[in-house]
Amino acid sequence: MSRWLTFAPLAVLAALAVLFAAYALRHDPHVDPRARVGKAVPDLALAPLEGGQPQRLHALAAGGPVLVNFFASWCAPCAVEAPQLNALKAEGVRIVGVAYKDDPEATKAFLARLGDPYAVRLVDRDGRAGIEFGVTGVPETYLVSAAGVILDKHTGPLEAADVDALANRALASGAR
Questions:
Q1: In terms of CB atoms within 10 Å, which end of the chain has fewer, N or C?
Q2: By three-state DSSP, how is residue 176 classified?
């Protein structure tokens, strides 16, 4: 019997290897960055940057489609996309900014320095809203319909071509 006990750890290890291999063969490790597109906006309430009562993201789209932009003052690509967001604002597109895992004072300084393209500024200090939206990194921009459905997602800093495409899609959805 003591001989079997010697091989027991090896047998357990082999069984675990078979179990993990079977799981890995059936599991698709591909992350779909657009998994939330076509689904409802998460039912979250975030505090405004200026303070006050939390606002529901779903309710912010009720007046017409909006762009929801996750950004941070510590994010270099967020500074790069600031002129594009300001161009969208100039075209009449309504943008909701969500300061992702950022200090509110740093966020205010960031917006004062680069311009504030946001109609509403919210704070996601703990990153929960980012998780619910499926944010993989900032900046990320979501086009949300008036019905509260995510129509499109752009990962990374917006460029001029992205601005045109998002503005056309937002305006076609009735963003003005």
A1: N
A2: coil
